[in-house]
Amino acid sequence: MVKHSQAWLAMRKKRWPLTLVALLSLSTVTVLFIRTTSDSCNTRAKPQVRTQAQHLDESHSPIRSSSSPSQQQQQQQPNPLEFMKSKLVLMVSHELSLSGGPLLLMELAFLLRAVGSDVVWISNQKPPQPDQIIYSLENKMLDRGVQVLPARGEKAVDTALKADLVILNTAVAGKWLDAVLKEKVSEVLPKVLWWIHEMRGHYFKVEYVKHLPFVAGAMIDSHTTAEYWKNRTRERLGIKMPETYVVHLGNSKELMEVAEDSVAKRVLREHVRQSLGVRNDDLLFAIINSVSRGKGQDLFLRSFHESLLLIQEKKLQVPSLHAVVVGSDMNAQTKFEMELRKFVMEKKIQDRVHFVNKTLAVAPYLASIDVLVQNSQARGECFGRITIEAMAFRLPVLGTAAGGTMEIVINRTTGLLHPVGKEGVTPLANNIVNLATHVERRFTMGKKGYERVKERFLEPHMAQRIALVLKEVLRKGSRKQLN
Ligand SMILES: *[C@@H]1O[C@H](CO)[C@@H](O)[C@H](O)[C@H]1NC(C)=O
Ligand SMILES: *[C@@H]1O[C@H](CO)[C@@H](O)[C@H](O)[C@H]1NC(C)=O
Ligand SMILES: *[C@@H]1O[C@H](CO)[C@@H](O)[C@H](O)[C@H]1NC(C)=O
Fold first, then answer.
1. Ligand 3 centre distance from Cα of residue 362 (Å)
2. Where is this region: Disordered (predicted)?
3. pTM of this structure
4. Assigned superfamily of 82-250+460-482
């Protein structure tokens, strides 16, 4: 707690971006909730049936921070990553930022630190001027015993040569190989695991991925994306993918703690609803993605408007429907954002549509909405972490039938799928009306989604899947070196 508040004060002095302050202060609130509830847990008679998370909570020491690795878990069951103890792992990230790719790699760094691996981190690209986000993320890593090295230089090359395993994060990180390792590249490739989280056209560039066929393995977040990479590398670049492993992601322990804390959820819900000016019984359909055409906010708003007309036309008795668009960034997508605002004005639905600036703190929104809309267009999401995060909060998902969403959402069980593109506008409108008019269906789907998350989309599941891949890659790397 003390640490959090000090960081918060320090950041206020430095006039940090509002979003980050909000994030930290929210995580402080979260820590508070977790403390109070687990404290009371220790003195209260325990219910007969407990979730795994509650079970693990019992051995909490009072000073444990909410972000510390899950030590309790290690005591109770063997950690699947245990074999990584004292292995030297070099992680090369294209950049260090608050975006999905780098944060995931950081999570893996912490999982490996928790089992005693030596982890060294390199960010290939850094802005020339000091950057406070990078500074704070690097400090977070140093606190957890991750070494941070400059991207270029002897130390980087040495570490790459000595490492048991090198993990490259994102296609673009491939630029680091030749630029830094030069003639030593071929020595390092047999122990490289390449983690890929993207599937847009501009990533299929020879300058990024020409070494891909020669690395020990590629790890990709969904089957669809893996198929797409196989196809595109062959057809476009004439190169062959290495052994490819599909590893679905998992929800962090921190997120699950909020999702499973009904007190925290209620407070967050009241707070957010109040700030948006919506009532407790209004129905909130939210899309939570950086605002851009690829994420389909425009088509979602068209569906939303159509659903309002349907409800009016059929004289359906439902609570007021609201649309929340979380992920606004006027500076980045000015033209597209103006288009969205114009549509809302033209259709006179300003009182029903709420825009929220981009934020990393999605838990408060997940706690306050009724349905998540995942409307990513074209090939859809590579995986779509927000989808499993929403399901952890027992929310049904209305998603496009594309990409990773198809591997997460079970149509008619945990949500409803609609086609991408303009063809999807009316089906999504119908699905919105469907869930608005069937409370029971909404709850059942939310519950089924939560069960699915508990079964396969948690951090321990992800760790298990990653462990299998790392074992394979280590085995191959050492064999190649003996030859
Ligand atoms: C692979 O590429 C071929 C030809 O470009 C295309 O017909 C096929 O649908 C693609 N498959 C996938 C899974 O993308
Ligand atoms: C949202 O971002 C815009 C600029 O991108 C800024 O002007 C506005 O104050 C922000 N709103 C909130 C509530 O932070
Ligand atoms: C999902 O279910 C709906 C309703 O039964 C159906 O119309 C639609 O084709 C299904 N979509 C997919 C991708 O399975």
1. 28
2. 43-79
3. 0.83
4. NAD(P)-binding Rossmann-like Domain (3.40.50.720)
